[in-house]
Amino acid sequence: MTIQRYRKILVSVAVIASLVCGSLFYSSFTQALSPDHTADVSDIQDNMVLLGGMPVGIYLQTDGVMVIGTGTIEAEDGSSCSPAEHKVHAGDYITAVNEASVENKKSLIEQIEASAQKDVILTVRRNKEELQIKTEAVTSRDGKKMLGIWVRDDVQGLGTVTYIKNHTFAALGHGIHDMDTSCLLEISGGLLYRTNIRSISKSTKESPGSMEGIIVYSKLNELGTIQKNRTTGIYGTIEDADAVLDEKIPIQTAPKEEITLGNATVRCKVENEVKEYQIRIDALDFSNHEINKGMTIEITDPELLAITGGIVQGMSGSPIIQNGKLVGAVTHVFIKDSKKGYGIFIENMMKN
């Protein structure tokens, strides 16, 4: 998972912030890329893409307001109550209050405060089924109407672009999950932003490190739009590949059957430039039992190990290259040995 900053709130009180990390990354090196010429996006053939490796800032909006859990409210009469307990479930998405649409925490709070009745009808999406759930708004000791529901409406973090093709991009190699419920986030959209890596916390035994970046969430720093959050990564559009890539390098993609055990490279930016580093592919799993864990890899490059100590959070999506072809991307790190982890086959990312 990528480094993710999550925010959740007990409706309708003040926001409580929470920070979580994810994004696990890997590295590999076997052959330098043979093509060193640049190409226009329109020149890329069906089995060719523009090679990634650049870190980006990520901002996602949930499709509705996600329920994290329920809590207890201290009512104005001094009693304690949990009006939504056993009614809404973690992983539900609230899309309306009394038939008035809600898109984020702010609009949810506004609709609750505006309700003239104590009873509240929530429209909830649960496992793609729409439900009408009746609960009540309790007035707290500070005079605010509350439902006693913890919610989240966005995610922010850091990850790596794997490839760009025909103004579309793929990144991460795994989906973004909610830190509290472990559910794959259902999103309405999102944005990619420029980021600068400020520092790297090195991985140690049983403690993966992390990349720390500076992300300014402004219009000037927008790189593209995020449209899908899938098990195999995040996907969207980028109008200007030059804004993302230091160099536009076309590379052929390889089916999983062409991958062999042994040397490979990973392409990432852990210092001031995007570089390839040596790794080794130790095992292959063609079963698709876990679609983003098709390869077991190990970082062997002394330079990368000196910088990161192994796979660090924020590096998910870093391209894996073997025999001059793009074969996959880093997805996970082994907690007990941060030099090792998993990668996804590139063909699984490209299906989306």
Summarize the helices and strands and which ones pair or pack.
Blueprint: E1 3-10, E2 15-20, E3 48-51, E4 55-70, E5 73-74, E6 80-81, E7 93-97, E8 100-101, H1 105-114, E9 119-126, E10 129-136, E11 138-139, E12 145-146, E13 149-165, E14 168-171, E15 187-193, E16 196-201, E17 209-214, E18 222-230, E19 233-237, E20 250-253, E21 262-268, E22 275-284, E23 295-299, H2 302-308, E24 312-313, E25 319-322, E26 325-334, E27 337-345, H3 346-350
Parallel strand pairs: 17-24, 20-26
Antiparallel strand pairs: 1-2, 1-13, 3-13, 3-20, 4-7, 4-13, 4-15, 5-6, 7-8, 7-9, 9-10, 11-12, 13-14, 14-19, 15-18, 16-17, 18-19, 21-22, 21-25, 22-23, 23-27, 25-26, 26-27
Overview of this protein structure:
This protein is mostly beta strands and 352 residues long. The chain folds into two domains: 3-62 and 154-350, no CATH class; 64-153, PDZ domain (Pdz3 Domain, Roll), CATH 2.30.42. The protein is 6% helix and 48% strand. The chain contains three helices and 27 strands. It has helices spanning 105-114, 302-308, 346-350; strands spanning 3-10, 15-20, 48-51, 55-70, 73-74, 80-81, 93-97, 100-101, 119-126, 129-136, 138-139, 145-146, 149-165, 168-171, 187-193, 196-201, 209-214, 222-230, 233-237, 250-253, 262-268, 275-284, 295-299, 312-313, 319-322, 325-334, 337-345. The chain has a 20-stranded mixed beta sheet that branches. A three-stranded mixed beta sheet has the order 16-17-24, with no helix packed on it. A two-stranded antiparallel sheet has the order 5-6. It starts with a strand and ends with a helix.
